[in-house]
Each structure stands twice: as structure tokens, then as C-alpha cells.
Amino acid sequence: MSGGDTRANSLTNSLVIGIHFDLICPWCFIGKRHLAFARERFAQKFPDIAVETVWHPVQLLPDVPEQGLPFAEFYERRLGSAEAVRQRRQQITLAARSAGLELDLAGIERMPNTARAHELLSRVAALGAPASYEALLERLFAAYFQRGEDIGDAATLRALAEEVGVLPDRLAAATKADAGLAPAAPADTSAIAGVPHFVFNGRRSLAGAQDATLLLVAMSQAVQASATA
Q1: Burial class of residue 108 (count of CB atoms within 10 Å of its CB; 0-12, 13-18, 19+)
Q2: Ramachandran angles phi, psi of 53, nearest 5°
Q3: Coil vs helix vs strand at 198
Q4: How large is the average pLDDT for residues 120-142?
Q5: Using alpha carbons only, how large is the chain's radius of gyration in Å?
Q6: What value, to the nearest 5°, has the Cα angle with vertex 71 and ends 66 and 76?
Q7: Is residue 8 helix, strand or coil?
Q8: 113-125 burial by CB neighbour count: b if 16+ within 10 A, else e?
């Protein structure tokens, strides 16, 4: 029996990772990729511990109109100048590359309202198919940050769901263009320190797009703390 197996036998046999996120946050996409790397390393270290991820939507900008806003104008107004936008893009691009992601921030035309996209994800979650949820979540991030697609648009969301095998007849109520926006899930700054925000077994938490090494440490500490409790 390997050393990893021996440690696993002395620990709790499960790890639940809660992740607060929004689809317009590039750090959430970057953090998601770092978490995937950390999970691979965790599985090697603790092969007997089952890991579950639970995604918690946080709508950062619920006041964005249903049809969205021009992205470039929105961010220049938000950050104060074109130079500030350029510097932020450079910062995000470099951080993304460290996680193996190539983003096309210049290709984003619309700042969407993410309520409808989060509602779509919630309906997929209700289907009880975690793999479909993860595939759609990844596809939504890629659609926005790599392909410049409008993830606030109902027709676009229908197409993205179909791309990952979620058929429209199961999600008709969530993806009809006239269904209206789902109730907003506003950021609760009293509970979390921004997004992405990771919580491990309800015992350890990390804020921000932390690298895989730090996430792995927190995951390991969480299962050890759960076993002790």
C-alpha cells in the first residue's frame, strides 16, 4: 500500500469544494483551471478520497441591462482610461497563460447580464448530471473569454447547451428568449471576499485565483481538519 493510501485511510473519505463565481470574471476562469490542476494532484496524493465541486453563482453586475452594454466603453468608464484598460488586459492575459489559457479580451464586444446564463446552469444542475454542468460551465467561460460570444443572449445559450449535449426540450423554460431574466444572485460581500472564492469542507477557504499549489494545500488541510473533528 502506498503512502498516499495510508494517509487517505486516516482521513475523511470525501472533500466538498464550494466555488463562488461569475461568468464575466476572468479570474474565475483562471481559478477554475488552477483547481483542475490541483484536483489532479490531490487524486494522486489521496486516491481514496472522493471530491465533489459545488458551484455557487454570484452575479457581480445585476444592473447591467438585459441586452448588455458595449464592452470597451463599459471598461474604460469603469477603470478610468484606455491605458488602465490596456494594463488590466495585460495583467489578466499573463495570469491566464500561467494557467494554460489563452484569452481574447479584445474580441469581447458585449458586457452581458449573466442572470440568464446562471439560470441555464441551475437548470442543468437540476438534471443531476454533474459532467454536463461542468462541460457547460467550461463552454460558457470559453465562449465569453476566448470566442467573444454574447452569453447574455438566449439563442446563444441554447446553442452552447446543445454543443455539450444538453437538449433544448429539457431546458425550454430556461432558454426561451421571452422568458425574462432570472432573479439576480447579487454578490454577498459579508459572506465572501469577492470571486472566485473557494471553500473546502466548510473548514478552509481561499479567495482569488490562487495557483494549484495553494489550492492543494487548502484541500489537504480541509480533509485533515474534517478527520480530526
Answers
A1: buried
A2: -110, 135
A3: strand
A4: 93
A5: 19
A6: 130
A7: helix
A8: bbbbbbbbbebbb
Span 113-130, pLDDT tens digits: 999 999 999 999 988 889
Strand segments (E) across the chain = 14-21, 50-57, 69-70, 110-111, 197-200, 204-207
Summarised one tens digit per residue, pLDDT across range 7-46 is: 444 456 899 999 999 999 999 999 999 999 999 999 999 9
Q: Which three cell numbers mark 74?
A: 463599459
Q: Retrieve residue 69's grid coordinates.
A: 452594454
| Per-residue confidence band for 178, with pLDDT thresholds at 50, 70 and 90 | very low
Distance CA 118, CA 121 (A): 5
Average pLDDT over every residue of 211-226: 93
Beta strand pairing call for 14-21 and 50-57: parallel
Question: 35 to each of 63, 175, 210, how far by Cα in Å?
Answer: 30, 29, 8
Tell me the pTM.
0.86
